[in-house]
Design brief:
about 30% helix; seven-stranded mixed beta sheet; globular
Length: about 220
Amino acid sequence: MADFSLEEFSRIEYWEKRYAAADAPDSYEWFRTFHYLGPFFQTHLPHPQQKPKILHLGSGDSMLPKELHRLGYTEQTSIDFSPTVIRLMRARQPHLDWQVMDIRELKFADESFDVAVDKATLDAMLHGSLWDPPEDVRSNVGTYVDEVARVLKPGAKWLYVAYQQPHFIKPLLHRPAAWTVDVQTLSDSEGGVFEFYGYVMTKHSVKDGETSDGH
């Protein structure tokens, strides 16, 4: 795919046009279905009885919020910068919370969520050489990552799944004062050729430099 096309994925105009043409009643999974990703999420999500507040980042028309709701996760908020897809999803799944919002400017208070979920949203911001990302990539991804760190509660997790390999992605996620980063290699349960990755960012329970008594 041409680099120009990759850059288009970061622009709202591309997605508005794409979703405006989506007349089918069913959602389209841009990256893996729940059949493949369910075990990863169920391993790292708190139990539904704890009623964790989950934020889906760049949710598009994914079925993931619906699948998690089916498992008992009722406190979910899904955001996307496309008004068109949010309108579609509100009609399809009115029992869930859908909001128009830019992931680089989250309209939530600090420490609002127990879990954040990114299903290849960050990937859509990437173009050019990943060995030396262009300035707009560094800026957009950096702002996004900082916003996710801000809205997560202490001890909360950011679960991010992608094809992008760790040696490219870990430097972009590196926030030692905010969280730890763990990577899990995932693969198709039916023996698919391509591996993909689950990134787990766990926010520190105590702010850097403080002890458990706040000193």
